[in-house]
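Lecture notes, part 5. Sequence design as translation. It can be helpful to think of inverse folding as translation between two languages: the language of shapes and the language of residues. The source text, in structure tokens, appears below.
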């Protein structure tokens, strides 16, 4: 039996296991820094396979599969945290297959699927251990949604001498079972707008004796818009959203503070940093115009996360491997997604690929936007995700 046929045979054998893993993790539904049950479940699976593992604070896990034969070291990564979203008992078409048992918390983004597919791939690769050389490192990241887990996990991974990295994100914007491994920007980087304008309070009858921060806040929005129309590098994209502005509590009182909250999204890290610098500079100058000050947290100085950019060579290798392995028409092109993900940090450190795996099937209720109470995971795609992970891993390991 050739290797592709053996992978497919093992996929059939493990498909129900992968589904069961997804449902178990979904019922746990633990948010960032609380993934105790999910962590314990992953550790038990590593023990069952006899694989060494490392526990990384708070609840991340690294599992190592070493063939004992010299070769490359590749990293396969999944995120494990859930969201504080009240799960609707229905998806877009009717009752969902699996529901969270944690009040007010559910996997409304697909991290349960990411965890399950990586566990499935870990089982298959362990069974195939005698047929390849090198080392596979499996990383399960806690706290992806708020960024709490990435720094400790990335630091712990330094000693593994990783050469390439792979991960999958399920995507409600892509049709069921389709997979995209396109090169270049795939997800946006993110930065925050978080400005508090501080003035001088007073009575509304004598605005000349006060310093009204509401004027500073409202002018800041106008100044930001003008700057972004004229100062973003031509050919680059930086989107800006300011959903929150607040100041004052009474019609006859000038309050001391007003604040503005929003975010930027971008596909070029340097342009994202320029957006942070520009937003802070404009805040200070606008405040001064109205005899106010502008206060901003340290977190506004730099992007919270960089864009997710797939390496050209890694993407080409992945496309070649998957097009010769999956049914014709499965591998497709997909537009970049403006959501953000900590995978961008991994891809700045090592070349690799973040794949999109489509779950959209509206007739069966799958296709609600991520972070939505009706978001639901289409379990038909789990097998495809697991075997794609295995096939790309073996392709990268086999290269001289």
């Amino acid at each position: 039996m050739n290797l592709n046929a053996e992978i497919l045979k093992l996929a059939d054998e493990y498909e129900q296991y992968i589904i069961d893993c997804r449902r178990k993790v979904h019922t746990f539904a633990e948010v960032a820094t609380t993934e105790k049950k999910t962590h314990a479940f992953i550790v038990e699976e590593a023990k069952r396979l006899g694989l060494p593992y490392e526990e990384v604070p708070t609840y991340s896990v690294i599992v190592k599969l070493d063939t004992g034969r010299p070769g490359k070291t590749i990293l396969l990564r999944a995120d494990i945290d859930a969201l504080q979203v009240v799960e609707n008992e229905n998806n877009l078409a009717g009752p969902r297959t699996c529901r969270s048992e944690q009040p007010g918390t559910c996997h409304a983004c697909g991290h349960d699927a990411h965890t399950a597919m990586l566990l499935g791939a870990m089982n298959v690769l362990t069974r195939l251990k005698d047929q390849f050389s090198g080392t596979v490192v499996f990383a399960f990241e806690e706290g992806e949604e708020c960024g709490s887990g990435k720094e400790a996990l990335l630091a712990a991974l330094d000693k593994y001498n990783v050469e390439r990295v792979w991960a999958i994100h399920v995507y409600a914007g892509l049709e069921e079972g389709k997979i995209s491994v396109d090169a270049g920007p795939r997800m946006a980087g993110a930065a925050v707008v978080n400005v508090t304008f501080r003035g001088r309070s007073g009575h509304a009858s004598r605005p000349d004796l006060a310093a009204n921060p509401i004027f500073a806040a409202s002018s800041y929005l106008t100044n930001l818009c003008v700057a972004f129309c004229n100062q973003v590098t031509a050919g680059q994209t930086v989107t800006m959203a300011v959903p929150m502005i607040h100041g004052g509590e009474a019609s006859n009182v000038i309050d001391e503070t007003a604040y503005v909250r929003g975010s930027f999204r971008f596909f070029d890290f340097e342009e994202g940093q320029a957006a942070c610098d520009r937003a802070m500079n404009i805040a200070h100058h606008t405040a001064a115009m109205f005899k106010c000050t502008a206060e901003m947290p340290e977190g506004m100085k730099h992007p919270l996360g960089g864009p997710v950019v797939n390496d050209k060579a890694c993407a080409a290798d992945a496309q070649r491997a998957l097009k010769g392995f999956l049914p014709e028409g499965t591998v497709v092109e997909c537009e970049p997604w403006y959501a953000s993900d900590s995978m961008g940090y991994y891809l700045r450190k090592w070349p690799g690929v973040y794949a999109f795996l489509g779950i959209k099937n509206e007739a069966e209720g799958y296709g609600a936007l991520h972070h939505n109470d009706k978001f639901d995971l289409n379990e038909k795609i789990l097998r495809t995700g697991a075997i794609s992970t295995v096939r790309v891993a073996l392709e990268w390991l086999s290269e001289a």
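The translated text above is only one of many valid answers, since several sequences can fold into similar shapes. The two ends are 23 Å apart (CA to CA).
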